[in-house]
Amino acid sequence: MKILKFLFITILLAVFAFAAWVYYPQYQLSKLKSKGTEERNMTTINTQSYLEYYKDSAKTQLNHLALGDSIIKGYGVSPDQNLVSHFSYSLENSIQKPVTFQNEGINGITSSTLHSLITEGSYNEAIKKADIVTINIGGNDILKMAASAGNRDMLSALKSFDELQSTFSNNLTGISKYITELNPDATILFLELYNPLPEKSPFYSLGTKLLPQWNLMIYQISSEIPSSLVVETTRVINNQNLNYLSPDGIHPNSSGYSAISEQMMYQFENNNSPV
After folding, report:
1. Is residue 229 part of a domain?
2. Can you tell me where the transmembrane regions are (predicted)?
3. For site-directed labelling of 223, which of 3, 89, 174, 217 has its Cα 20 to 30 A away?
4. Does the residue 275 lie in any domain?
5. Which domain holds residue 34?
6. pLDDT tens across 9-20, in order?
């Protein structure tokens, strides 16, 4: 009887621990987003949106540097239809100043590789002259872990996920620190990771539960940088807007990249610049 009681308590604790592991990050993420909304609504006479700040600045042109994976590269679309082009052209039209852009997206790149490239100085000159740095990274970390998972049991898979999260967090922290030390005046735009799976997919629910943990780290890292925003990509790329995805079901199509760009512009217009 004592053994059965012990097993029952052990299983119950395991269930509670797993629930906390899954749902607490969602709660924290929701709080961070709500805090951002409250701060946007707390305007004073001296506040300016990012859009107003760049429009009124003495600079005659802006430089936009984009770093990351295939979402930055613009996989599946022509160069003039990718995210970086869409956003740069939209910003240029809004502030009535030229916006030059440098797209350094690399298909298949992981956060570890991007961290190495940046900290080894591969983009030093581009970072130094950038007014805006857009970063999208982490999706390939997850995809490569999933591909190598094979037939591992759930405990091993969750342990691998935790280890991968820690590596990703360290990489993104290192990337952010390097950029801000090299150019403390640059605004950094981080993109949320999104779940491209349709609701009927057997993996949709798992992705919905795990991705908030990933995005929470992005928000936490962004919160340590005064001039930084997290683009709420999940508002536009989700199971309600599958028409924004390309035939591969993962990458955005031209309309999807345009929609993310519009979200970036919306946040640029509705978030206060710290400067």
Report:
1. yes
2. 6-24
3. 89
4. no
5. 2-270
6. 444 333 333 444
